């Protein structure tokens, strides 16, 4: 699978019995080196799940040998006992792989406020380690084992000019799911790089890809994006070359998350141009992407520029300087509003494609930023209300 | 009707033909004095409708003799022509009433981006002025004429200890409506007060009532809240006495807006206590009230405290200092989460009443704030997507 496309990695997913139904629910990713470089980016939610607390400190030294990931339970808001569970999981995997517990990262996704079934989880880890003793799984079981309400596994890979490979798996979709729909991502590369270079490449890639997916404005307690480097290719790429590949794989996975967002009928790309700064453009794009009125209108195939303009107007002037009378809004290529007023007839906009492009020209500067979101649909409400969770 | 409960006011609603269907769509409120004190609070959206631009400058001198309000069109994003329409409306009403155009306030609600049918509007104003020549209407026609998708007219009144009366009408509901669901409110009082006192009372009342209604986080281009004082009672109440009455009528109307929010099945009262400041409490309350996951869970009668805690955790620490491990969450009186973790069984929460009380104890200080919102329902999506608007 894609996560093992780079040399030096093994990965597998197993059905450990964490989920009520017998499904793949535990994934183990092992870095066989020679390097054990690792970097991580985590949720900025102040309510942090136990595995996030564990992994954040474990990866702080820039090293990791393995990642164990489970679906079927977030291990969030579970107190000291929950942290002990994450710690014990890392120690158990460390014993199985004969590495240090500090070099085992843990990630979880599922319900908040419930303890994990530790007996099943630990036994599943043993099964996974046993399976990996025979070599990497040839299937996509690791990508499948981290799925919650995802309908398809998400994988991507890229090869750089110098022959370095970057691979990755992901689950989640902004938050368009019955639970908080944690975003879990593991990226791998066989590049020879330093921990500092890995960290820089991951942060830059995350900033412009995963951080630009804002399906429903709700931030998980468990979001985790990891990058592991084995150095097995023996190739030391340029910093920019590696960063570009990490960004490409991240962008690919991020786009897959949006495309699989549960309940969504449109993938909405909000692009704000002619802003005074990237931060200003991003603030306006995010405000539009978070407007339930805009999102519901898109579900109704209505290119409602009034709602888009009104959302833009909610961004404070010190955050995004622009003249409301200079705004222009295009939907799927048709400029439905210009000069802050009426433009082309909205009837001329074709809203039937799944992908919807909203372009807002602030007429204030040279900076640009974009956000990917989804529309607000009956299925979103159904997914997030009909099941007790 | 309630807006004419205070002495010195006349009001009426007429069917001017602004709406496609023959419905009440134009209201005229006249202050016969002897005072002509007025104050206004308007949307902070940077995209401001023409009537907002007009009324903001017209009321800046603390005086007004009349308010003309229409449904069926917001007159927003209509450029200089739209502003000329609002100006012309004020001048027309001023001629009819033999007052200055600068003393006529204008408010509109409806679609963004379309010009108003001025001939119909001006003729309707003439009809309304003619009807008022015979005295105040005895019905609720003014309250009905500003309704868009409101299902009931909203009216309230209060009498202070010294005998001063405050009355009011309102339309809208946060934003739970096919259009931006502008909030229009006109309050009246027969108190003898200065323009400064009226302004202070209105701002304080708005801050803790209308500003605390956050049905779907979307801010209109047309929100307008006005207070007119006639002085006709001859009574000069204490500043606090009047402020209390204005706040009471505002709170009553705000609660009516939430109760009539289209598509909603729950009115949700989010109360945050033990915060370090009112601003901190308000930031947490608003974040929870704006979480689509929390709102969808409530629609599903699920007291999902994990989503509530996760929303609280999204507020930056410098905005609202608190320890996530000290959080306690009660839903309808049952403390489902304490110490940042599991509390009473969620099954013991009765979610069937329309009113849902979410109490979040931050354990950090003495300050409190609250927000009223609604749940996220299929009907909300339907209302905001099914009709081209």
UniProtKB/TrEMBL annotation, chains A, B:
Cellular compartment(s): Cytoplasm
Protein's GO biological process: L-arginine biosynthetic process; ornithine biosynthetic process
Record has Cytoplasm as a keyword: yes
Site residues, Involved in the stabilization of negative charge on the oxyanion by the formation of the oxyanion hole: 109-110
Binding-site positions, substrate: 148, 171, 182, 262, 384, 389
Top-level class of the enzyme under EC nomenclature: transferase
Involved pathway(s): Amino-acid biosynthesis; L-arginine biosynthesis; N(2)-acetyl-L-ornithine from L-glutamate: step 1/4; Amino-acid biosynthesis; L-arginine biosynthesis; L-ornithine and N-acetyl-L-glutamate from L-glutamate and N(2)-acetyl-L-ornithine (cyclic): step 1/1
Keyword Acyltransferase: yes
One GO CC annotation: cytoplasm
Active site: 182 (nucleophile)
Pfam families: ArgJ
Site note Cleavage, residues: 181-182
GO-annotated molecular function: L-glutamate N-acetyltransferase activity; L-glutamate N-acetyltransferase activity, acting on acetyl-L-ornithine as donor
Function: Catalyzes two activities which are involved in the cyclic version of arginine biosynthesis: the synthesis of N-acetylglutamate from glutamate and acetyl-CoA as the acetyl donor, and of ornithine by transacetylation between N(2)-acetylornithine and glutamate.
PANTHER family per UniProt: ARGININE BIOSYNTHESIS BIFUNCTIONAL PROTEIN ARGJ (PTHR23100), ARGININE BIOSYNTHESIS BIFUNCTIONAL PROTEIN ARGJ, MITOCHONDRIAL (PTHR23100:SF0)
NCBIfam families in UniProt: ArgJ, PRK05388.1
Assembly mode: Heterotetramer of two alpha and two beta chains.
Protein name: Arginine biosynthesis bifunctional protein ArgJ
Protein's organism: Brachybacterium phenoliresistens
Organism placement in taxonomy: Bacteria, Bacillati, Actinomycetota, Actinomycetes, Micrococcales
């Amino acid at each position: 699978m894609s996560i093992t496309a780079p040399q030096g990695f093994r990965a597998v997913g197993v059905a450990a019995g964490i989920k009520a139904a017998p499904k793949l629910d535990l994934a183990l990713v092992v870095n066989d080196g020679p390097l054990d470089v690792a970097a991580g980016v985590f949720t900025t939610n102040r309510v942090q799940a136990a595995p996030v607390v564990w992994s954040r400190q474990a990866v702080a030294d820039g090293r990791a040998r393995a990642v164990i990931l489970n679906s079927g339970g977030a291990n969030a808001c579970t107190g000291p006992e929950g942290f002990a569970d994450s710690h014990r999981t890392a120690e158990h995997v460390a014993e199985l792989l004969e590495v240090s517990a500090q070099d085992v990262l843990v990630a979880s996704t599922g319900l908040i406020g419930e303890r994990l079934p530790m007996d099943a989880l630990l036994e599943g880890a043993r099964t996974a380690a046993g399976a990996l003793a025979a070599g990497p799984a040839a299937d996509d079981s690791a990508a499948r084992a981290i799925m919650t309400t995802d309908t398809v596994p998400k994988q991507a890979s890229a090869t750089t000019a110098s022959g370095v490979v970057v691979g990755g798996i992901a689950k989640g979709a902004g938050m368009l799911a019955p639970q908080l729909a944690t975003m879990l991502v593991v990226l791998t590369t066989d590049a020879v790089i330093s921990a500092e270079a890995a960290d820089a490449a991951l942060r830059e890639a995350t900033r412009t890809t995963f951080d630009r997916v804002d399906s429903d404005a709700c931030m998980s307690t468990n979001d985790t994006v990891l990058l592991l480097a084995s150095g097995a290719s023996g190739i030391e790429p340029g910093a920019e070359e590696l960063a570009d590949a990490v960004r490409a794989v991240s962008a690919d996975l991020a786009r897959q998350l949006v495309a699989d967002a549960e309940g969504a009928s449109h993938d909405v790309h909000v692009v704000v141009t002619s802003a005074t700064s990237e931060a200003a453009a991003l603030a306006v794009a995010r405000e539009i992407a978070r407007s339930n009125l805009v999102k519901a209108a898109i579900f109704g195939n209505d290119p409602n520029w009034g709602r888009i303009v009104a959302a833009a107007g909610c961004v404070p002037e010190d955050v995004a300087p622009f003249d409301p009378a200079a705004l222009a809004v295009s939907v799927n290529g048709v400029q439905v509003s210009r000069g802050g007023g009426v433009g082309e007839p909205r009837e001329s906009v074709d809203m039937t494609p799944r992908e919807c492009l909203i372009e807002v020209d602030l007429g204030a500067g040279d900076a640009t930023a974009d956000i990917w979101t989804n529309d607000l649909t009956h299925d979103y409400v159904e997914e997030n209300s009909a099941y007790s969770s």
